[in-house]
Write a structure and sequence with these properties.
InterPro entries: Terpenoid_cyclase/PrenylTrfase
Distance between the termini: 59 Å
Shape: elongated
Oligomer: single chain
Helix content: 25-40%
Radius of gyration: 28 Å
Number of helices: 16
Number of domains: 2
Mean pLDDT: 96
Largest sheet: 18 strands, antiparallel
CATH architecture of the largest domain: Alpha/alpha barrel
Strand content: 15-25%
């Protein structure tokens, strides 16, 4: 008997099987079929509900595509089933029933015909699915569905350990996708997102150490007629499956796709898809099974596909580096004051840009190098000179020993008994009033006394640095206690605590944890810390755009988190931020960490090159007129004058391609350029 209980059953089935995945295809009374997925031990994981489905604008009942027969074949490709499919004719199914006299649909032909093939690879737990369909008439379709995967249906239901839809969702346990944990409506809805918001084209659900998911090629043309617009496979994701209001999880592909944000979150298109006789509709996807968590499935996809080749940079990389150095030598400098950013006039002062010593070690004998060396020498002579810090925003290196000991004692006083560090929104974590406003007018974004990964990793790094510098073992003991207790945490959280929900999935937290655990491995020699560092490093992947849409360059852009600022005021599923990933790798450079050596299974050197090239796209050029200051409109005139050129933008809109927000000094881009050029 089939495991799926939501279909009629004739007793006919065919099986595809290897030692990693079992696939059963069953026949309805009206034809083949649906597709069930089993682990090697026989656990039912989910089902492809049909071999395609179309819903017309003027007909209430959707029409599945079904087949009378199935062709089986084997070869070097594995095992394959081929179905010649046709959409059902609803009026025919009503003949001889009580409905025949009072329901009449004019559609008397098959709307879609075609072929669906299922190929189980010989040595992998992956089923390749191809839908090659043809429209047989002039039709207005509210949707055409291709692979429509329901995980957990008639099995573990809505239960899950985690789920990842890269760039959009990272869920744990009973959290809902499109839930209001990290957004408030209407932004909370993201079950049919604009394809540009998807960072990696896969969706995955895990349960009891098994992952079921689907991946596809987002640049493959799904359908187009004559000189009309192109349509690509539109992903649909709901966990639990609130679309069907069913105890399962939904991962599907359909057309039409979303072009404007106003078209999002509609599984029944308001403007129907026009189909014409002979028009082709194609879906290609892989349904996969994997052991572990949804993150493990993302990592496996990256290993199998390889880290993508970064696109051609905006400028040759060495030229880009000199461009940044020249900006520090000119508009980022004020005589007798120092370096700084015109968007923040108070930032000018006698400090050393973090990249400058490395740059001068290579180019000191050039004319630009000599001028920068003179400026740096002047800064170092000033009584209020500030040297660069190894940790972003920290000042331990500039403290004398008494100050270091005092600060270490403060950190230990803040540490909880269990080893974590609590969130203190009105005290030491108060840097912006965003969470104060959110707490007053909506609800708290984080509770005082709660903790998260990044909240504990930053002081752990500081304690290790203080312990190494002062020789005080109690500082090292505090750091180790934090590292030990945080090993049980499952998702990177808390990195953007100043403006986003504390427990939302967060890239900066992943970066902090990777650096902290690898530093802990070097300091304490605990091997499990190295594995933790790799785990958190790999947690960067779901935030990273690893495919290139045809319209807007997005390759290696990153999301800071999957949430909103202040519940409403910035949508981090739509918008990219590059400074956080650049800071993660710039900090790693300063600490002597080479992630390519630490985790050689992933090409992190290519990844670093990719995020650096993406960072060059963020660099501001007033002649392009593609940046707005958002919350600092008074600085727009600085932009028009070119004074902000070669800083880089805080945010990038994945739909419009425009940039905005703060104008950030390009120091972290230069640090990464130096490392990339070195290799």
């Amino acid at each position: 008997m089939p495991s799926y209980q939501h279909a009629s059953y004739t007793g006919d089935k065919v099986i595809l099987e290897n030692n990693l995945l079992r696939v059963e295809v069953h026949k309805r009374i009206t034809g083949w079929g649906w597709v069930e997925f089993y682990t090697p031990s026989g656990e039912f994981m989910g089902v492809l509900d049909h071999l395609g489905e179309i819903m017309l604008r003027d007909q209430d009942v959707p029409m599945r595509l079904e087949a009378d027969d199935v062709e089986q074949m084997t070869g070097d490709f594995g095992q394959r089933l081929v179905f010649t499919v046709k959409s059902v004719i609803v009026q025919e199914k009503l003949q001889g029933t009580s409905f025949e006299n009072w329901i009449h649909y004019p559609v008397k032909e098959h709307c879609l015909e075609g072929e669906v093939s299922l190929t189980l690879l010989s040595n992998a737990p992956r089923l390749q699915v191809e839908f090659n369909l043809t429209s047989m008439a002039n039709l207005n379709a509210r949707y055409v569905r291709g692979p429509w995967l329901k995980a957990g249906v008639d099995a573990f239901g809505a239960d899950k350990e985690d789920a990842i839809f890269p760039g959009v969702e990272w869920l744990l346990d009973d959290e809902w996708s499109s839930g209001t944990d990290w957004f408030k409506d209407p932004w909370a809805k993201r079950f049919v997102p604009h394809p540009n918001k998807v960072a990696i084209p896969l969706m995955a659900i895990s349960h009891h150490g098994q992952v079921l998911g689907i991946s596809w090629n987002p640049n493959q043309l799904a359908t187009q007629w004559f000189n009309y617009r192109k349509h690509y496979a539109q992903p649909v994701f709901a966990s639990p499956n609130f679309i069907d209001r069913q105890s399962s999880h939904l991962m599907g592909l359909m057309v039409p796709d979303v072009v404007e944000e106003s078209e999002e979150n509609k599984v029944y298109a308001d403007v129907p898809l026009e189909l014409h006789p002979g028009q082709k509709i194609r879906f290609e996807a892989e349904v996969f099974l994997h052991r572990g968590t949804s993150l493990d499935a993302v990592v496996e996809w990256v290993k199998r596909k390889g880290m993508p080749e970064p696109p051609c940079p905006r400028w040759p990389l060495e030229e880009a580096l000199h461009r940044i150095a020249d900006a520090y030598n000119s508009r980022f400098w004020k005589d007798d004051i120092g370096f700084g950013n015109h968007q923040h006039p108070d930032s000018f002062g006698p400090y050393e840009p973090r990249f400058l010593e490395l740059y001068l070690s290579r180019y000191r004998d050039t004319a630009l190098g000599r001028e920068l060396q003179n400026k740096l020498d002047w800064c170092r002579r000033q009584p209020n000179f500030r040297s660069p810090s190894k940790l972003r925003g920290q000042r331990i290196e500039r403290m004398n020993q008494a100050e270091q000991l005092k600060y270490g004692e403060e950190l230990l006083a803040w540490q909880s008994e269990d080893g974590t560090f609590p969130f203190d929104p009105d005290g030491r974590h108060y840097s912006k009033d965003d969470f104060v406003v959110a707490r007053a007018f909506i609800e708290p974004m984080g509770l005082s006394g709660d903790t998260a990964l990044a909240i504990s990793m930053l002081p752990a790094m500081e304690l290790m640095m203080l312990g190494e510098t002062t020789g005080e073992h109690k500082f090292l003991d505090g750091a180790k206690k934090a590292l030990d207790v945080c090993q049980k945490m499952r998702r990177p959280e808390g990195g953007d605590f100043w403006e986003t929900p504390l427990h939302s999935p967060n890239l900066l937290a992943a970066g902090h944890a990777a650096i902290a655990y690898y530093t802990g491995y070097k300091v304490f020699g605990v091997k499990v810390y190295r594995q933790q560092a790799i785990r958190w490093l790999r947690s960067l992947l779901p935030f990273t755009h690893l495919w290139q849409p045809k319209q807007i360059p997005l390759m290696y852009n990153t999301k800071p988190c999957f949430c909103s600022s202040d519940w409403y005021f910035a949508n981090w599923v739509r918008d990219h931020v590059q400074w956080e990933i650049l800071e993660t790798f710039a900090t790693s450079i300063g600490l002597g960490i080479d992630w390519g050596e630490v985790d050689p299974e992933i090409d992190w050197r290519r990844y670093q090159k990719g995020i650096t090239i993406a960072g060059l796209r963020f660099m501001i050029d007033h002649q392009l007129e593609n940046w707005q200051p958002h919350n600092m409109p008074e600085t727009d005139e600085l932009y028009r004058q070119g004074l902000l050129d070669d800083t880089f933008a805080d945010t990038h809109n994945s739909i419009t391609g425009n940039y905005g927000g703060m104008a950030i000094m390009p120091d972290p881009i230069a640090m990464n350029l130096l490392k990339v050029l070195e290799s």
